[in-house]
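Minutes, project check-in
Item: structure for the 175-residue chain
Input as provided by the requester:
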Amino acid sequence: MQGHDIHKFLESADHLLTACGIAVAGIWAYYNFVRSRTYRPRAELSVSARIFGSLNCSYLVPKVTLKNTGMSRLQLEQTGSGIRVSHCIEQPEMPLHPIAWSDAGPAYLMFEHHFWIEPGETVVDEQHVIPLPSSYTAVKLDVRLCIRTRRFPKRNIEINANAVSYRESVTTGRM
């Protein structure tokens, strides 16, 4: 082989290795971004409640926690999102008897001051104080959160959470 032939051979090998490198990088990108859904919206939503007051007048403070567990920013959508509160209508006769809940009242807004949440960020909403009927025994909170997506057609992602809180036995009198 002469010097010219060796140069052509090395140049061809260089082009072949570059093409293979681009193909491997494309396959890696496909599996990393599309198949593994790395940048898809992911979130953890939880709800709890604190009840305070007396026998005649009780209040509920719902606490909604949202954690962005994904690697992309979550854009919150207020339309369709909210907290609904229902109370137990009657005591169940048997321990495993289903509970009848009142119709949910108005939807309370949440995360009003948050338009988006960065990756790894956790936000807590504990802004509402809701009066409860004097005859309640338990309260159910239903939370619905809508997250805006950038896909076409635009479809929001809906995350739901719920919790039940009950009246603790209150004793009157002094010790």
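Outcome recorded: Strands lie at 43-53, 58-68, 74-87, 116-117, 122-125, 130-132, 138-148, 157-166.
No further action items on this chain.
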